Amino acid sequence: MDTVTAILEGKAVNLCDQHPSPVTVQLVSATASYQAVAAPAGTFRFFHIPAGNYALTATHPACRPLAPSPIKLGSGDIADVKLGMRCR
After folding, report:
1. Which residues contact 17 (CB under 8 A, 6 or more apart)?
2. So where are the chain's domains?
3. Residue 51: predicted pLDDT
4. Closest to 13 (Cα-Cα) out of 37, 36, 42
5. How much is the pTM?
6. Given strand 52-59, what is the order of strands in its sheet?
7. b/e map 11-24, b = 16+ CB within 10 Å
8. How far is Cα 74 from Cα 49, in angstroms, rounded to an integer?
9. What span, in angstroms and rounded, lies between the C-alpha atoms of 19 and 5?
10. Fold exhibited by the domain 5-85
11. In the chain, what is the straight-line distance between the N-terminal and C-terminal CA atoms, in Å?
């Protein structure tokens, strides 16, 4: 990995386990937006993200959207997060 960018990885957990469709995870800054669809196991990963301040959110068709959570990524960081989704 280069030292100018960061990696953000994590797991989105559907806390009701009744709706297996995938979770969409979004990472947004003032100048860029990144989106990933979590794997069936809930894992997701963003590579080569420029250092900076972001808002992290997730959506699922049957769950309440997660409120944006602030996250700061520094050069060379490898950040790991866990997101808990609840049914509507």
Report:
1. none
2. 5-85
3. 94
4. 42
5. 0.82
6. 33-37, 24-28, 52-59, 69-73
7. bbebeeeeeeebbb
8. 9
9. 34
10. Immunoglobulin-like (2.60.40)
11. 39
Task: For residue 51, give the amino acid letter.
Answer: A
Residue ranges in 28-80 assigned as alpha helix (H): none
Q: In the numeric block, which tokens belong to residue 58?
A: 């997730």
pLDDT digits (tens, 9 = 90+) for 16-48: 666 566 889 999 999 999 999 988 888 999 999
For strand 52-59 and strand 69-73, is the pairing parallel, antiparallel, or unpaired?
antiparallel
Structure tokens at 61: 């068709």
Strand pairing report for 5-14 and 24-28: unpaired
Nearest to 37 by CA among 23, 21, 17, 55: 23
